[in-house]
Amino acid sequence: MSQSKTARVYETLKTELLDGVHKPGSKLAIDQLAERFGVNAGAVREALSRLTSDRLVAAQPQKGFLVATVSAADLLDLTAVRTDIETRCLRRAIELGTLEWEGRLLSTWHQLSRTDQMVGDLSNPEWTRLHGQFHDDLIAACDSVWWLRLREQLYMQAERYRRMILPYARGARDVDAEHREILDLALARDADRACAALSTHLNLTARLLLSSGGAQLDVSSSA
What we know:
Oligomer: single chain
Number of domains: 2
CATH superfamily of the largest domain: GntR ligand-binding domain-like
């Protein structure tokens, strides 16, 4: 039962942190969270420790648990490393991908392209889920366990920044067209152009966020 409570706190807080519900650098008070979730302090502490491992939360002596900060420098560094790893994974997936890989990728794309990204002024959770699934399926045929592990960690950190841009990026890009271009090139087994399209796709998010002026990026980061 305690594990299920910890998991519930962890998953809820993880979603909130990715969605920017908690301000970067703000304190996450264990007692307040325990009261909010109706669990004991131990369950909250364990959930926050897991989030620290995810680098969405930072643990500091005398201060407790804080929301990991964000910065322009961190975003640029993260995007560069993510682009390197994700394109490596994509190139390998294109080399090894089977018909089953193609079919799963097409199915996810079909659902994603027919799902609205926003519901009113809010992000659509179903689009967010399918978007993550599309990028997962794109590189699923890669056979390097370590590349995939690194890619998963980088994706989560990048997702936090991506969600920051949503209020400012409407009309600034055609995400469906970007995804379709990557899909078509991957299915055509054109690894060079597919990786170039994926690189452009990933870096555009960073450029839009940095140029929007809407998101306040701190000068330092523990993310």
